[in-house]
Design goal:
By secondary structure, the chain is of the alpha/beta class. The chain has twelve helices and seven strands. About 23% of the residues have low confidence.
């Protein structure tokens, strides 16, 4: 089951002017920027919105069409209808309806396959089980949160605080991070540095340092942060230029496009069995995030105190 927590014109996410896949050469990267009101409005918590459930209505059109014909027939032949037709005419109409139903039986619901399923369901394995995505994992986790983010997105910086507060309250969650550098060369450089730091076991430290950094993230500042954390700078530079790092970013971008992610942050929540999945498109308060987590975790698990 997939739910989307959405709001038209959501003001709690950053949207680039043009979203493109990351490319290997920085000069080919399309430049984009957060809208000014988004970059300055980091703390807005009012992003929780209405749930939209998806049904099987698209599969039931033939059934509905047949029911309409049957209802007309019932009305024409029932005792409360006015006798507008003679018995011979009614018999002829009933025969027409019977012939139609025989030639056009209601189509059974279409099976959900990889081709026609909701994209979140179709790509759930890559979304939640990609071994290349950095994560913060606890053995007692009952829920999984995947975040698509950009280090230069103001609302992503706000989510860093939310995650800090969440982990102070509970370790029953697993956090998975999908680097999605939408905002130009600096974002791309920062994302490469973070994934390279992961190879030294220092992803979380550099990730946090870049999110709390004020202003932009020019390459020299990113390298200064890595140096202050004690990373092996020669190895970091080598890993940042590894084509596998670029391939990981391209894979994230392709997944975001398939899932129709249009801005950052975008959060996907699920229980560990992937039975219930929710999307939160934008920054959310700690309280609302915990409320959503409690909705997706298995019913036999205790709720997380908010």
């Amino acid at each position: 089951m997939f739910k989307k927590l959405s709001k038209q014109g959501n003001s709690s996410s950053c949207h680039p002017q043009e979203q493109t896949l990351p490319v290997s050469h920085p000069q080919e990267q399309a430049l984009a920027a957060c809208h000014p009101q988004e970059r300055s409005d980091v703390g807005d918590p009012a992003s929780h919105a209405v749930r939209v459930k998806r049904g099987l209505g698209i599969f039931l059109k033939p059934v509905i069409k047949s029911l309409k014909v049957a209802i007309i027939s019932l009305f024409l032949t029932s005792s409360f209808a006015q006798p507008v037709f003679t018995p011979e005419q009614q018999q002829a109409i009933e025969q027409i309806v019977a012939n139609y139903l025989q030639k056009h039986p209601a189509a059974p619901p279409k099976a959900v396959t990889q081709d026609n399923a909701d994209p979140v369901i179709a790509h759930s394995d890559t979304l939640f089980h990609d071994p290349d995505s950095p994560s913060v994992t606890y053995p007692q986790a009952d829920a999984v949160i995947v975040e698509f983010f950009d280090y230069q997105c103001g609302h992503c910086k706000g989510m860093r605080y939310v995650f800090d507060q969440l982990l102070k309250k509970t370790h029953r969650v697993k956090l998975i991070f999908k680097e999605l550098p939408l905002f130009g060369e600096q974002s791309l450089f920062a994302a490469k540095a973070a994934l390279a730091a992961a190879r030294q076991g220092r992803y979380w430290e550099l990730h946090q340092a870049m999110l709390v950094s004020d202003g932009g993230l020019p390459p020299e500042h990113v390298l200064d942060l890595a140096r202050e954390l004690g990373l092996n700078m020669e190895q970091l530079s080598k890993d940042m230029n590894d084509p596998a790092i670029m391939a990981e970013l391209n894979k994230n971008a392709a997944l975001a496009k398939a899932l129709r992610v249009e801005g950052t942050p975008a959060l996907f929540l699920s229980d560990t069995g992937l039975h219930r999945i929710e999307l939160i498109p934008g920054e959310v308060s700690t309280e609302n995030l915990i409320r959503s987590i409690n909705e997706v975790i298995s019913p036999d698990k205790p709720k997380i105190d908010g």
